[in-house]
From TrEMBL:
It holds the Pfam family DUF1068. This is Uncharacterized protein. It comes from Carya illinoinensis (Pecan). Residues 138-165 form a coiled coil. PANTHER family: DUF1068 DOMAIN-CONTAINING PROTEIN, EXPRESSED PROTEIN. The chain crosses the membrane at residues 13-32. The lineage of its organism: Eukaryota, Viridiplantae, Streptophyta, Embryophyta, Tracheophyta. Keywords: Coiled coil, Membrane, Transmembrane, Transmembrane helix.
Length: 171
């Protein structure tokens, strides 16, 4: 059954229509929500947020002392002896402890780095020795090849000489 000549035209037209509809749907899907929320934000029918109730006195805004860290959470860790001991420390002791911890971490990192450098040097020297062995082996093989070529050339000359003598004697 053959299609009419207009069939290809109609098929292309339907395909174009479907593509246009899909494109419009995608555009609406992408643009629609942002336009909806923008228009909803501009509407006056919605009541504004209720005001926050804050009971802040002006005493809270006085300059803070360094001891605020230790007194900011008085009930925190009340039953934990380690936490009590930490909270009793003054600010300078906490800072010096932090510096000592950072120094220990830095020293550990340096030791680890030094160990890695030493390992890298050992690996480098190992590969250098292996490369030297390989170079020596290549030189030895090259010398042996050259010697074998010379011996082969001598054998060829000797064979030609014996062949020539054999022909002279009728062989």
């Amino acid at each position: 059954m053959a299609y009419s000549p207009d069939h290809a035209f109609y098929t292309k037209g339907v395909l174009r229509l479907v593509l246009v509809l899909v494109g419009l749907s995608l555009a609406g899907y992408i643009v629609g929500p942002s336009r909806y929320w923008r228009s909803k934000g501009n509407s006056t029918t919605q009541a504004p947020c209720p005001l926050c109730v804050c009971d802040c006195s002006s005493e809270d805004f006085l300059p803070l002392h360094l001891e605020i860290i230790n007194s900011s959470l008085p009930d925190c860790g009340k039953n934990d002896p380690d936490m009590k001991e930490e909270m009793k420390k003054d600010f300078v002791a906490l800072l010096s402890e932090e510096l000592n911890l950072r120094k220990a971490v830095a020293n550990d990192t340096i030791e680890h780095t030094k160990a890695l450098v030493i390992d890298a040097r050992k690996t480098f020297s190992h590969y250098r020795r292996e490369a030297e062995k390989c170079s020596t082996g290549v030189e030895t093989c090259e010398e042996a090849r050259e010697r074998a070529e010379r011996e082969l050339a001598e054998e060829v000359k000797l064979s030609e000489l014996w062949e020539k003598r054999a022909r002279e004697h009728g062989w």
